[in-house]
Design brief:
- With 240 residues, the protein is α/β, with parallel strands linked by helices.
- It has eleven helices and five strands, in the order αβαβααββααβααααα.
- Helices cover 52% and strands 10% of the residues.
- Strands 1, 2, 3, 4 and 5 form a five-stranded mixed sheet that branches.
- The termini are far apart.
């Protein structure tokens, strides 16, 4: 049985209504292509849960499947139907990956390790299946995860963005999570929403304010984007 938590949403926006339709399509697609006994859980995370979706937002649906063979099959059929599923995105993880805290070999280099999904598990919505207990899986310490994410952003993500291989809105999203976990590492308790985090950090020159501006006011202006990336690189240097 599917937990349709979005039924409780009052005053749904047109974007949310389209998102709900896509979630229903995506879940139906999932069960049509993957045997039910191979699906452990389905979680939804991101701005659909926090109700901060905009016209560029995706709905992050995370099916937990039993093994890497099923994972690869799901990724393959999903890739064929990506456009039909939008704005929902199926972002599967296998139980094998979680148990070993190691990505399947066929995954790309920018995919975070499985424990980054587990880290914030309590903030996601369980839509179907078994509730995972993150204490039963291997996990890095929070400070180690944070350092690894900084390194990936500095040494891979920004470079790919400059080559045109990683979208600006995706980069903005990564900045949100880096800033959120930066605040956590300082012993603070930041909100997990864009508006909340923007208001929480009072330092006027902090990168979150530029990121929030471009979240609210998307731009294709290359100079403005380059200026933001330059500011981001300066911010990241503070973690050396």
């Amino acid at each position: 049985m599917i937990n349709e938590f979005w039924i409780s949403y009052k005053n749904k926006t047109s974007i949310e209504k389209m998102a709900i339709d896509s979630v229903n399509r995506a879940i139906k697609f999932l069960f049509q292509n993957i045997p039910q006994n191979k699906i452990v859980s389905i979680y939804i995370k991101g701005t659909f849960v926090t109700r901060e979706m905009n016209e560029k937002s995706d709905v992050d649906i995370v099916p937990i499947v039993k093994d890497n063979k099923t994972l690869k099959k799901l990724q393959s059929v999903r890739n064929v139907k990506k456009e039909m599923l939008k704005p929902s995105e199926l972002l599967p993880i296998s139980l094998t990956e979680l148990k070993n805290n190691k990505n399947a070999k066929h995954r790309g280099p920018l995919k975070g390790r499985p424990d980054t999904f587990l880290r914030d598990l309590e903030y996601y919505k369980l839509v179907y299946g078994k509730k995972l207990n993150k204490a039963t899986y291997p996990m890095r310490k929070p400070e180690e995860m944070f350092k690894d994410e900084i390194k990936t952003l500095k040494n891979q993500t920004i470079l790919l963005h400059k080559k045109g291989e990683y979208g600006f809105s995706q980069l903005i999203k990564q900045v949100f999570w880096i800033v959120f976990h930066e605040q956590k590492s300082l012993g603070k308790f930041p909100p997990r929403t864009w508006k909340g985090l923007n208001n929480f950090i009072k330092e006027k020159k902090h990168i979150i304010h530029k990121a929030y501006y471009f979240r609210i006011h998307p731009t294709k202006d290359k100079r403005k984007r380059a200026g933001f990336v330059s500011a981001l690189e300066t911010y990241l240097e503070t973690f050396n």
